[in-house]
Design brief:
Blueprint lengths: L7 E2 L8 H10 L3 E5 L5 E4 L1 H7 L3 H4 L4 H4 L4 E2 L5 H11 L1 E9 L5 E12 L5 E10 L1 H28 L4 H16 L3 E9 L4 E9 L10 E3 L5 H7 L3 E3 L16 H7 L4 E9 L2 E10 L7 H45 L4 H15 L4 E9 L2 E8 L7 H5 L2 E3 L4 H9 L3 E3 L19 E9 L2 E10 L7 H46 L1 H52 L8 H31 L7 E5 H18 L3 E6 L5 E5 H17 L6 E9 L4 E8 L21 H6 L6 H11 L3 E7 L3 E9 L22 E5 L3 H12 L4 E5 L5 H8 L3 E4 L8 H10 L8 E5 L4 H6 L4 E4 L4 H17 L16 E5 L3 H10 L6 E5 L2 H11 L3 E5 L7 H10 L8 E5 L6 H8 L3 E4 L7 H16 L1
Parallel strand pairs: 1-6, 21-23, 27-28, 27-29, 29-30, 30-31, 32-33, 32-34, 34-35, 35-36
Antiparallel strand pairs: 2-3, 2-7, 4-5, 5-6, 6-7, 8-9, 8-13, 9-10, 11-12, 12-13, 14-15, 14-19, 15-16, 17-18, 18-19, 20-22, 23-24, 24-26, 25-26
Length: 1040
């Protein structure tokens, strides 16, 4: 650095004398040195002597370059360049390195100025020097600290971004080597303090070959073990040579590095929460001390590396926990989906591989006494003696390992089989180094053991055992079920054989009655025994399967309600899946028990009034998700004349769900399934038909369809799981209702199952809030945008019944223009249109001010209500949609439009505004219905829930009319009406009886009690205001 400043003049005109100048120079704290034009020292103040260690008389007359030479110019220049600038400009400034008398190097900030005479000629040079060594050291330390912070910040950002741990460690070690100037840097992670094994997680080194990332060393001896104990920094200034043999790898990092020609080692322990997880190792090629700043830097990087490793471990543990939960869930589903023992065991080994990777595994079941038999193998395919292994059967008392598990009922983990007592007794054990034996226990009984093998020593851990035991718990239930099912199948086979024998005996009975009596009695006894065993099996299954299922479902509910603590969304989903699978198994058990009850004549039907449409829609919704997953179209067709019937609602739903489930199961991807309901008033029958485009059934097989536990053929049974109970149960339940089942089918042409039941169309007893009442829905025009003809016609029929004009548009194109033209009161919009998605049309409708205020009801098989609301839809319904579903949605859509001044469907009766109406009703659906409807006509509605409360409230509010239900608790409507007529204060109030009583004489009873009018439920709401006003008018003259 230099500056073009003017030189300082010297001469007689200078007002400061030479003596004064020297006195001022002596007082300055900076070193002031005056030299002649040849740079020989002429003046050297006290500050200069203190700075450089030379007294003034020692340097007088000497060359500056000999006393305090410029060792280095920090701006990159040199002495010649500096002199050239000084001579040319008369001034030079810069920073240089100069020696102290002791040899210490000083960083000097210097300014040199030419001293001139009165004529401007240079006479001497004056240099003012300041020691900035401490400042530069601090600046350098600050720069290095900032550099380290930047490195660590960058690495931290990489970590947060999800960069792989090995890449992060490699970058950190490379940067660290540059900072502290070493030839080797590595991170050694201890796999297990107990096992004393270490793995190199990162290596940055000038050395070639071992150690490399992933290499493992045995730390059973050597200096690393000292770090384990002391948890302190270890420093080796000169590593001793290893004493290990040439063929044996050293047992610690110090010996490894010494063999590679490195002499000094700094080992920094990596600690997390007080636990030692590994070490950071720095080494140099020559013996040296590690200064404090290097150790401090290594500690900083070591702390970061420890956190990074722990974070990676936590992420891996979280990922592994999710994987384990998902695998266990999948295992639970897979294991309970089949009752075939071989399939269950194969599924067990499949999911075990996902939880605990192994080289080979086998399942041994306890056959009888203490004899174990190998039932399933995995990973032995390469062995020549695999068939011999498949046939292994042995007595546990002769094998110490198996005997130990059998006696303790506890898992056994062998980390290394070499030298383990009794290991030579295990078949194929010469290849195995790590081994686990897991007992399979169910209901206090040891079912067997599964063995898990690995050719790597120390591979399995206690966590491996825990996961295998968890899987064993799930597998034990499935294996028990499979064994019970196999036993049941064997018993059923015995029963069939007995039936065949009995039939053969009966054909010859006419001519051999006397001779064969004893044989016939024996056959009957065998048949009775088989039936008894079946009943015992069913009773046992009911108890033994419901008991663990109760626990599973109970625990799932507790977890779902987060009693033990909060759950993540994924855990909530897993718990829900467990609950769903458990309830599926419970339904299977119920089917078996129902069939048994029917066969025993113990099933009692609970007959009630059933809403046929609502029931069928509920059944279809239950199958909608499964059908959608296979791309199967699921449709319904109803006879509008059918509303209600008398039946056992639960059993009727059971019939329809079984038929729909079979139809979806045996229909290929993209097929069709339909439910059709038809009625015949002449024959008083209802026919429920389920049709599909599935695989069909041969005519010769149809007679066998309704036999319990029988499926059409084994190949089909393997492709489509099931127990063969569904159709048998359908037939029995239909017959219990006094109905029948018919089948029409052909291979590859689909099937049609029809259930015909008696039709008793007794009207519903109460007016439900979901009834098809249109008085709440004043719609003049609606636009349906849907490419499905069946759906459009269905919705159009619903709306037309409400007196609404309907326009159907089958494409997205032109929909907006048509909406602008029609200005409908409602738009029903499907999402899956052929030329453009419905979401795009919804955006257009809500983005156009001409249509933005029209309510849009999204109707689709796509279940995305949140997206629909975000785009401005008023409501969202998932197909298939029932009339009741549509009515509920329309009430919510239309009611706000009525609030802003729209008139009701019929004109308001005169004087209705502000009239107080008292409703005496205990049914909440009826109460809700009246609260929605009557205020639209200006009535103010008050509610009492029994006759006694109605009398009390009538005295308090003096209503203009009372709507009196007849069947109520505490006091019925007949009694309440009689008391009102006997009360002088209340006798003139009109009373309208609202009742489901429609038998002969009911009307006369109500009128005789004092009612002014008699209305049978379900009430025609549109007529109710007129009836109220007529009743009031009838009483008005009496009031006057």
């Amino acid at each position: 650095m230099y500056s073009n400043r003017r030189a300082i003049p010297m001469g007689h005109n200078n007002p400061i004398s030479v003596v004064d100048q020297e006195h001022i120079i002596a007082l300055l704290q900076d070193a002031v040195i005056i030299s002649d034009l040849e740079f020989r020292i002429r003046s050297w103040n006290d500050a200069a002597a203190q700075l450089y260690g030379w007294a003034a008389d020692e340097v007088q007359g000497q060359l500056l370059s000999e006393v305090i030479p410029a060792l280095r110019y920090l701006d990159g220049g040199d002495r010649e360049t500096a002199i050239e600038v000084l001579v040319r400009d008369g001034f030079w400034r810069g920073e240089i390195i100069q020696p102290h008398r002791s040899g210490e190097e000083l960083t000097i900030n210097t300014s040199v100025q030419a001293l001139r005479d009165t004529e401007g000629r240079p006479q001497a040079y004056i240099a003012i020097n300041r020691n900035v060594s401490g400042q530069r050291v601090a600046e350098q330390a600050l720069r290095r600290y900032a550099e380290r912070l930047n490195i660590l910040h960058h690495m931290n950002q990489r970590t947060l971004a999800g960069a792989p741990l090995d890449a992060i460690i490699a970058e950190v070690l490379d940067q660290l080597r540059l900072l502290v100037q070493v030839q080797h840097a590595s991170v050694l992670i201890y796999s297990s303090t107990a096992q004393r094994r270490g793995t190199f997680l990162g290596v940055s080194s000038d050395l070639d070959g071992w150690p490399a990332v992933g290499d493992v060393i045995d730390m059973s001896g050597g200096s690393v073990g000292m770090i384990d104990q002391a948890h302190q920094v270890r420093i080796y200034h000169d590593l001793p040579p290893t004493e290990s043999d040439e063929d044996t790898r050293p047992h610690d990092i110090a010996s490894i590095l010494r063999d590679k020609g490195l002499h000094s080692l700094l080992s920094i322990p990596l600690m997390v929460d007080g636990e030692l997880i590994g070490s950071l190792n720095l080494a140099t090629s020559s013996p040296q001390e590690f200064p404090d700043d290097q150790i401090a830097i290594a500690r900083e990087f070591g702390a970061y590396l420890a956190i990074s490793v722990q974070s990676a471990r936590l992420r891996e543990n979280e990922r592994r926990a999710r994987q384990i939960a998902e695998t266990l869930h999948q295992a639970g589903v897979a294991l309970t989906q089949s009752l075939d023992l071989n399939q269950v065991l194969e599924a067990l080994l499949d999911h075990l591989q996902k939880l605990v990777p192994y080289d080979s595994a086998n399942v041994m079941l306890l056959r009888e006494g203490q004899i174990f038999q190998v039932y399933s193998l995995r990973g032995y395919e390469h062995r020549a003696d695999i068939e011999e292994i498949r046939q292994i059967s042995f007595d546990a008392r002769e094998h110490s390992i198996t005997r130990q598990i059998m006696q303790s009922w506890r898992s056994l983990l062998i980390s290394d089989t070499l030298g383990y007592p009794g290991w030579v007794e295990v078949a194929g054990g010469e290849e195995i180094r790590s081994w686990m034996g897991i007992p399979i226990i169910s209901r206090g009984e040891l079912l067997g053991i599964y063995a898990v093998n690995k050719m790597t020593p120390g591979f399995f851990s206690e966590d491996s055992v825990t996961m295998a035991e968890t899987l064993s718990t799930v597998a034990a239930v499935a294996i028990t079920n499979a064994l019970l099912y196999t036993q049941a199948q064997q018993e059923l086979a015995e029963r069939r054989r007995a039936e065949e024998n009995l039939e053969a005996e009966r054909t010859q009975l006419a001519r051999r009655v006397t001779e064969r009596t004893a044989d016939l009695i024996a056959a009957n006894a065998e048949l009775a025994r088989a039936a008894r065993l079946k009943d015992e099996f069913l009773a046992n299954m009911s108890h033994e399967l419901r008991t663990p299922l109760n626990t599973i479902l109970g625990r799932a509910e507790i977890l779902h309600e987060q009693i033990y603590g909060p759950l993540t969304d994924q855990q909530q989903y897993a718990i829900g899946s467990i609950d769903e699978s458990g309830r599926h198994l419970l339904a299977l058990i119920n089917d078996i028990l129902d069939l048994s009850k029917i066969e025993a004549g113990k099933l009692e039907l609970q007959i009630s009034t059933v809403d046929v449409s609502a029931l069928c829609q509920a059944c279809v919704r239950m199958m909608a998700q499964v059908a959608a997953a296979k791309g199967i179209s699921l449709s319904t067709t109803f006879d509008m004349a059918i509303t209600h019937m008398q039946a056992d609602e639960r059993r009727l739903k059971q019939i329809l769900v079984n038929l729909l489930s079979n139809a979806v199961k045996f229909t290929a991807q993209g097929g069709r399934v339909s439910l059709e309901v038809r009625g015949s008033r002449d024959r008083s029958q209802i026919e429920f038909s389920v049709s599909d485009t599935g695989i069909g059934i041969a005519a010769t097989d149809i007679p066998r369809l309704f036999h319990p536990f029988i499926q059409i053929d084994a190949g089909l049974a393997r492709q489509h799981e099931g127990t063969g109970l569904g159709l048998s149960l359908v037939l029995r339940l239909a017959e219990a209702h006094g109905g029948s089942v018919a089948v029409s089918s052909a291979p590859n042409e689909g099937s049609r199952f029809s259930v015909t039941l008696p039709w008793d169309a007794t009207p519903v007893l109460i007016a439900s809030a979901d009834a098809d009442d249109d008085t709440l829905l004043p719609l003049a025009r609606a636009l349906i945008i849907d490419d499905s003809q069946a759906s459009s016609e269905q919705f159009a029929r619903y709306l037309t019944d409400l007196g609404c004009a309907v326009t159907i548009h089958e494409r997205a194109g032109g929909a907006l223009d048509l909406a602008v033209e029609l200005r409908p009161d409602l738009i029903m919009l499907d999402v899956l249109l052929p030329d453009q998605t419905g979401w795009a049309i919804l955006r257009q409708l809500k983005g156009d001010p001409r249509t933005a205020d029209i309510p849009v009801l999204v109707i689709s098989v796509v279940d995305e209500p949140d997206l629909a609301r975000q785009l401005g839809a008023a409501a969202h319904l998932v197909k298939p949609i029932s009339r009741a579903d549509l009515m509920r949605a329309l009430r919510k859509l239309v009611r706000p439009r009525l609030d802003v001044g729209a008139a009701p469907a019929t004109a308001l009766p005169p004087n209705a505004q502000g009239r107080r109406i008292l409703l005496a009703e205990d049914n909440e659906d009826n109460i809700s219905l009246m609260r929605d409807y009557l205020p639209l006509y200006g009535y103010e509605l008050f509610v009492a829930r029994d006759g006694s409360e109605a009398i009390t409230m009538a005295r308090a509010i003096r209503p203009e009319a009372i709507l009196m239900d007849i069947q109520m608790p505490v006091m019925d409507g007949i009694e309440a009406t009689m008391r009102i007529r006997a009360d002088a204060e209340l006798c003139d109030i009109p009373v309208i009886a609202l009742t489901a009583l429609a038998m002969p004489g009911d009307r006369d009873r109500c009128l005789a009690a004092g009612a002014d009018a008699y209305v049978v439920k379900p009430v025609r709401l549109r007529e109710l205001p007129v009836q109220i006003e007529e009743a009031i008018q009838l009483r008005t003259p009496r009031a006057e």
